[in-house]
Structure formats: structure tokens, C-alpha cells
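Table S2 (continued). Query chain:
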Amino acid sequence: MSFELITIPCLSDNYAFILYNVENRSAFLVDAPEADPINEVLSKNNLNLEKIFLTHHHADHIDGLDKILEKHSAVTIGAKADIHRLPKLDEYVQAGDQLLFQGQVGEIFDVSGHTIGHIALYISAQSILFSGDSLMALGCGRLFEGSAEQMWHSLSRLLSLPDNTQICSGHEYTENNASFALSIDPKNHELVKRCEQVKLERSKGVFTVPSELGLEKKTNPFLRPFDKNIREKLDMQRSTDVEVFSKIRTLKDNF
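Corresponding output:
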């Protein structure tokens, strides 16, 4: 079977994603920020929406759900930990569970930090991680509910995935994230090169999402609190990884 991924811009800076089986047109949607652009993509590509996966409870990831379901009879899936604040869904999952779609096996990760109960989905056969607002291109989500320790634990788990994993994150924040990253890691030549590329892409209206995990490992400061140059820049040579990560997150919040 052959599968393709569609990145769908929604609202002002959100993304939804559709993974579909090219042969039978069965589709899997991740997050539902806004119904109209998603319904349009489904119709234009003659897709049959089979399942919808929600990464977390925030309105800009779920508000389009009802109008999508008015046109498509799909199985809805979300976090068991968020059952009290998600719309009524068909299935609830937690870390370690598996999600099946058209012969593909997805693994559920708990990536709490941005919210408590935030989940991500990794489909190894497709080398794709649907990360929502946990790991993002050159960044990570704000800590609205969780702690720095929780978020670093979540991101550390994702670091173990293969470098070719495509990170399908929930927002187009990359250009701002790039400017911040340079402010604390100016000696990183890979980062400098990436920032120039991001600026060029955004000037042409090109999506910077998905991004590749191998590149994130080299350039995303939120994945590198152990980095010597970052620690020197922050004067935190003797601090723990969690302490450095927390400082990076605070600096980004005020950037």
C-alpha cells in the first residue's frame, strides 16, 4: 500500500494533517482546527475520512470537529486523560496504546507539558510523528499546564526516534522560533544555515512543517539543553538539563 501526507493550513497559523491510502482513498485526519479547509481537501482529493485523531483539548485543535463530522462518518479518537474536556469521542487512548489505520500501526506517546494529557502519534512504517504542540519546528509548545521537567521528559522520549522521522507539528511558528534559537545558539552553523532557509521559504509562503527530526536534533535548542555552547551562552555550565531547558523556555516566552 502507498500512503501520502497532506498538510492543511487552518486559522491564522495552525496545521491539520491528512494521511491517506492512495489506492482506496481512505483517510486519517490529525487535529481539527477549522472545518472548511479540511472538508475542501477531503472533497477535492475524493477521500473517505475513516478516523480523526486529536492531540489535545485546545480549541484551535478541536473546534472544527462537529462540522467535519456533519459531512463525514469518522471514528474519533483522543486522550483518555482529557476525556473531561474533549468533545465526546468514540475511542480514548493513552501512552503505550496502538492505533490502527489501513494496516499501519501507530504508537501513542504521552507528551505532557504544553497541556497535561497531550498525546502524540508515531507511525513507524511512514516515519511520521504527529506531535501537536509538543515538539515543534525549532521549538516546543508553551508550558500552559505542565512543568519544564514534564516537557523535557516528553521531548527526551521523542529524541529516541529515528532521525528521518517527519515531525508534523501544529503551527507555523518556525520563523520566530529560528530568530530566538539564534539568540542563544549563535555559533551553531547548522542553525544559521537553517534560519536562512526558513526565512527564504516563508518569504515565498512555503510551509516549514513537517520538519525532520535529525535536523531538529542539530538545531532546535529545546532538544539540546546539554549543549556546551548553549550552556556557556546562558552561563549555566553546572546546571541540570531540566534547569537549562526551563531557562530556554522562559527566555522564549519573553522573546
